[in-house]
Amino acid sequence: MALRIETFSNLRGGNAFFKAVGHPLAARQMPALLERLSPGPIAIYDPLGLAQTLAEMYDLSQLDIAGVFVQDLADIGRSLLGHAAQPVTDLKACGARDVLVVAFDRARLIDHIRHLVPEGAALHDLSLARLPDDMLTVPRDYLSGLNFATNYVLFRDSGGQHTRLVSANYWSGYGAKEPEIWCCLMDRDGAALAEWREPLPGAGATITIDSAEVRRRFDLGDFTGQLFIHVLRVAGHDIVKYALDTYGDDPNDLSCTHDANSWPAERYAGLPAPREDERVVLWIQNSHPSPIPAGAVGLNVMGRDEVSWLDRAVPGYGLLALDTRELLPEARWPQQIEVRAGKHFVRPRYEVFDGAGHSRIAHANVERSDLKPDPGVREIANLLGKGYLLPAPILPPGRFSSLVLPTPMATGQDTLPVRVAVYDAEGAEVASQSLGCLPRDHATALETGALLAEGLGKANGAWGHMELIYDFAEGGEADGWLHGLFRYEDKHSGHVAETSFGAHVFNTVLTYKGEPQSYAGRPPGLSTRLFLRLGDAPLETLCHLIYPASTPWHGASQTALVLHDAAGREVASREVAIACGGSLLWRASEMFESKDLATANTGGYVLIRDTTCRLFGYHGLIRGETAFSLDHMFGF
């Protein structure tokens, strides 16, 4: 039962209305608005096509609706809220006592229809649920995406486990004036435990929200729930990026993931099935004030039509830990699980528990329904070389195993024609294995240890990497949305970390369908700006930078590693050169003197900057021989 709401379109970007009416502060005011309207009869005027989303967020069945009226001729006759939509020119004859205009900025809309309102009828809009102006970036355009720079965090402080969100104030670098974070911590049932504002530090300074500190500040007991964050008065863009570390009193507890992506999707994929000795728990974070009804969320083995539906409801803003074995008891690694989310929640995290007492957190990815196979992906090989590629580390093989699992990430992907190529630190291809034309329901994972040629390993202080690349030797189709899950296991401690991401075209001046992707300006994106948060002692900070190239680019990167303190002040810098097609695995303690790291102290970070090429990076923390974490990096 998917929600009929528009959240994100690859053509139009994010939609802010569902965020506006689903904001926790708006949700507190909506009951009062509905109470005003409840005597009825009421006419609904929906000039912007927003009424259906409003009805998905709130129960409007209590309203005595006399009719639903629209402005666009194309909408006349369409079923809205159980009524056939009528032209707004018929509004006067409906006999309504109240008229609800489904809009926040109503002034001009009201002026257009004032002469059509039934005599004596009261006019209402959504302004009662509007956020205060001091929370807005663009007060004159309430539904501007910049007014709703929001995200959700899986946040807990329970049983000796803690979570820490780390980001940076990148909005002030775009010109934001006095930005601030509004935070609302909610428990498993969606009830607010704490609410506060935090002024953001200066441009480039770090933001840290630690569950243990929040617990002390508000005198809370154990909690597991959601942290809703809203960055106020932003500039540049409305994306809230962060790294999220899970750490514990037990040194074995260490994991990391990143921001949840604030647009709920209909499906997610890349969720691994458990091994025999594992449990995989999917954390369902309801992103809306309306409950998720029983039977609205389901799981199926990737490539199979049979869906097992969850028979329990999830409260508004609530949190549910779903053991995948409950719905799919027979599914086993390396099978994959498809999540039927119905736009009820943001990109979900999952947690894997093994029989040795280790756990790790990672996330599923958005599965697109708007893609079709693209013959051009095969045809561009003569101009774009490797074309779309997905790079990932190979950690030192004496200690770690490094594994790749290709993951279907679009509903139209019936085949995955791929190979895995292995490169040394200098960019030389040392091994390659075709995985053939994998079917959608494949269960093929490759441990790269089987591919490591003699001599692959340490070279100039770095280890090699792998790339997932299209390979049409055995047929198949492609759409450019190639994804994979990468799993790393410490052979000594048994600790595991995993991460997943999608392919891009890298480092070529030729462009194809927005690639090489650019975060600022038009493609191609040929520069690097990555954020590496530093861990506190005894944790060491790990980073693997990869210089992927679809076609030959500059022979070596000109990469600056710039150490900053928590206030964003530069402490030290280091220049490194990474071979085109190669990589560099390093620790902060190897790149910077101990006195400089001490100056950076808690909250310090490294900004990785390169104006000559686009690097791809992975970051993590490592605790001696006990535990480690790994995830891909973000930039701003």
Task: Please describe the topology of this protein.
Layout: E1 8-9, E2 13-14, H1 17-22, H2 24-37, E3 42-45, H3 51-57, E4 65-70, E5 79-80, E6 83-84, E7 86-87, E8 98-101, H4 107-113, E9 122-124, E10 149-157, E11 161-168, E12 180-186, E13 192-199, E14 206-210, H5 211-217, E15 223-232, E16 243-248, E17 254-258, E18 267-272, E19 278-285, E20 298-301, E21 308-309, E22 319-323, H6 324-327, E23 336-340, E24 349-354, E25 359-363, E26 365-366, H7 375-379, H8 381-384, E27 388-393, E28 400-407, E29 415-423, E30 429-439, E31 446-447, E32 465-470, E33 483-490, E34 496-502, E35 504-505, E36 528-533, E37 540-546, E38 559-564, E39 570-576, E40 583-587, H9 588-591, H10 594-600, E41 605-610, E42 616-623, E43 627-628, E44 631-632, E45 634-635
Parallel strand pairs: 3-4, 3-8, 4-7, 8-9
Antiparallel strand pairs: 1-2, 5-6, 10-15, 11-14, 11-16, 12-13, 12-15, 16-17, 18-23, 18-26, 19-22, 19-24, 20-21, 20-23, 24-25, 27-32, 27-35, 28-31, 28-33, 29-30, 29-32, 33-34, 36-41, 36-45, 37-40, 37-42, 38-39, 38-41, 42-43, 42-44
